Amino acid sequence: MNAYLEKFVNNTFNKPKKALDLGAGNFFDVACLKQLGWQAYGVDLITGVNLEKPYLSPKEPFDLVYSNYVIHKLKHPEQLIHTAWRNLKPGGWIFIHTFHKNDKNSKSALTERWFKKILGKYGFNSAQYKTFAFYDNAANHKHWHKILEVKGRKI
Ligand SMILES: C[S@@+](CC[C@H](N)C(=O)[O-])C[C@H]1O[C@@H](n2cnc3c(N)ncnc32)[C@H](O)[C@@H]1O
User: Fold this and answer.
1) What is the pLDDT of residues 115-142, one digit of tens each?
2) 54: part of which helix (H) or strand (E)?
3) How far away, in angstroms, is 95 Cα from ligand 1 center?
4) What domains, with CATH codes, occur in the chain?
5) Nearest CA to ligand 1 atom 9
6) What is the DSSP letter of 138?
7) Ligand 1 geometric centre to CA of 18 (Å)
8) What digits encode the pLDDT tens for the residues 38-94?
């Protein structure tokens, strides 16, 4: 499981709840959350959900909506924040990992400033932003990334 997501979940929730993964890829994090007792669901282009457009899950509302390494791929990244907001309970959390604009190994235009503006627009509070270096050790990668972690709570 994404170690940062696991840490966030353990620090934020005192018991397993309900989560939605936006751009779940191979659904590994969804499977890990289920192992921890969560009701976890995921969507992705490969399951027929295009996050460039609004998406409302039949399982909403959620306690946690998270999305890792997806938003920087979208032409309309604000749409993903709006989708997270619509699928969350009041008091629910958004958690995002993406590549920072200054990451030399990815094409991303996203900055902390952009997230602050958009999260503010949708009424998230307690927002926290962290930028850190992460070494991608996968075969054919082997390089550093500049990761942006975004967490916020729906009012
Ligand atoms: C780098 S993978 C990340 C997968 C997973 N979140 C993780 O952390 O391992 C990016 C994922 O975003 C999905 N994706 C890209 N554009 C999308 C779109 N417009 N709508 C839905 N999913 C999209 C891809 O299909 C892929 O599974």
Assistant:
1) 999 999 999 998 999 999 999 999 999 9
2) none
3) 15
4) 3-154 (3.40.50.150)
5) 25
6) S
7) 20
8) 999 999 999 999 999 999 999 999 999 999 999 999 999 999 999 999 999 999 999
